[in-house]
Amino acid sequence: MCFIIEDGDTVLAMSPSWLISPIVCWLVGKIQGEGTSSNENGYNGGHQYYMPSLKGLRVTRFIDLILFRYLARELAGTMFAVTIVLLMILMSGRLIQQLAAAAAGDVSLEIVFFTLLLRLPSFLEMILPLALFISILLTYGRLYAESEITVLTATGFSNFKLLGYTLMPAAMVTIIVASFTLVLSPWGAQKMEALYQKQAQLTEFELLVPGRFQSTKSGTRVTYTKALSDDKTQMYGVFIADGDTLLLAESGTQYVSDDTGSRFLELHGGRRFDLSSDSLELQILDFDLYGVKIADEPEERRKLRKEAVPTLDLIGSNNPKHQAQLQWRISLILMVPIVTLIAFPLSKVNPRQGRFARLFPAIVLFMVYISLLIAMTGMIEKRTLKPEIGLWSLHLVYLFIAIGLLFGPEWLRRQRVTRL
Questions:
Q1: β-pairing, 3-7 with 10-14?
Q2: Hey, where are the domains in the chain?
Q3: Cα of 221 vs its chain's centroid, Å
Q4: Which of 154, 220, 244, 272 could be stapled to 285 by a disulfide with Cβ–Cβ 3.0 to 4.6 Å?
Q5: What are phi and psi of 238, to 5 degrees?
Q6: CA-to-CA distance for 50 and 27, rounded, in angstroms?
Q7: What is the largest CA-CA distance in the chain?
Q8: pTM value?
Q9: Are 31 and 59 a contacting pair, CB within 8 Å?
Q10: 5: which strand partners?
């Protein structure tokens, strides 16, 4: 609360609030001191009114600039802290998975940290909307809890002006998320796809040494090669024992399907021996070309292949996977202003409740939002949801929720006043 004290030509302002309120009240007093007092036009029952001068209007704009910088700085500081915490959580979990894959021989240890850097845009495009949402709740929750918003309201600072100040940083976050989801994330996924493609050509056979029997990582297959090409993709004089099957071939190569991502071993000019554990029967098969699937494409690789498609290639595509991916990328952009409109009214708390009073239900509302987006994206891929309806319907629902939270309390208050 501001206390305006007038003593002749001197206007003082005091407030119990500890940070912004003294500044605001001093500036309000400054405006009143530089305005035209009602004493010049007549004294009215001990109350003074003033007409701001041109200089006073300039001071008002100066106040708006100070308030905007203060609010933007508070939001940016909180958002930066929340982003760092969430990013460390995601990247630590990802690092553990990558190190486990490297220990199992699925990927090379050399590319583990590089792949984390390439995945950074895809992490941030998910984290930034949530970080902005939480930062609005925490920052404005503190301002309400410490009565600073009450001081601003008492000085004529409306909620819609505060909302406008909030949407400005949100617009910057929207631009950043758009650059991540439309450009940087697909580019990073393409680079990762190239790394994994090269890694798949080397996996299991990069450790082979010519003239030595070696067991693969699964322990079920023993491989021997008389000679090996420099890039370790071509084998000569091949012997493979896989369970009850023996394979002899003049040469062998690895092949990775571009369509499925599965890895195959192609043997040329050889013979296959099948031993039966139940009998002494031996089956012999001569072949010119023999192929066997070594491993299916991992689920992560399949997801990465979708993310690696450039945004321009997704536009106009009739492939349901491409349509779902395009709507997902646009949805991350639309989410930023919508969650801003939702977080703004939810941040209003009673000083007695504390700044965290509505934090949990607000986060639940956000998690339902993102979970439904993920589920509906999968439904579009499986053709169980029409792309025309797609994710747009969910955005409209949450936009109506935001409008209801913004205007609903005021409408209900007016309805109660009208009944009285």
A1: antiparallel
A2: 3-52, 65-199+304-419, 202-299
A3: 42
A4: 272
A5: -95, 135
A6: 15
A7: 121
A8: 0.70
A9: yes
A10: 12
DSSP letter assigned to residue 252: E
- Per the CB < 8 A criterion, the answer to whether 295 and 263 are in contact is yes
Residue 330, both tokens: 């646009």
Q: Are 50 and 35 in contact (CB under 8 A)?
A: yes
* Residue 8: both structure tokens together: 């002749």
Among residues 368, 379, 372, 395, the alpha carbon closest in space to that of 324 is found at: 379
* Among 27-36, 249-258, 288-297, the range of highest mean pLDDT: 249-258
The structure tokens 């690895």 sit at 254
CA distance 47 to 49: 7
Q: Which residues pair with 166 in a beta bridge?
A: none
- Residue length of the chain: 420
**273-282: long-range pairs with CB below 8 Å, 24+:** 273/245, 273/246, 273/247, 273/248, 274/244, 274/245, 275/244, 275/245, 275/246, 276/244, 277/244
Tell which residue, 350, 346, 368, has the closest CA to residue 358. Answer: 346
Q: Could you report the per-residue pLDDT of 159-181, keeping only the tens digit for each? A: 888 888 899 999 999 999 999 99
DSSP code string of 45-108: TTB--EE--HHHHHHHHHHHHHHHHHHHHHHHHHHHHHHHHHHHHHHHHHHHHHHHHHHHTSS-
| Integer Cα distance of 311 and 294 in angstroms | 33
- Give Cα 249 distance to the centre of its chain: 50
- As a whole number of angstroms, the distance between CA 25 and CA 33 comes to 12
Supply 153's token pair: 């309201």
Single-letter amino acid, residue 76: A
CB 52 within 8 A of CB 60: yes
Token code pair at residue 387? 């792309």
Angle of the 392-419 helix axis to the 320-346 helix axis, nearest 10:
20
How distant, in Å, are the alpha carbons of 134, 211, 340 from that of 87?
A: 14, 47, 20
pLDDT digits (tens, 9 = 90+) for 325-362: 999 999 999 999 999 999 999 988 877 777 777 888 89
Nearest-5° angle of CA 100, CA 103, CA 106?
Answer: 85
Q: Which tokens go with 277?
A: 């554990």
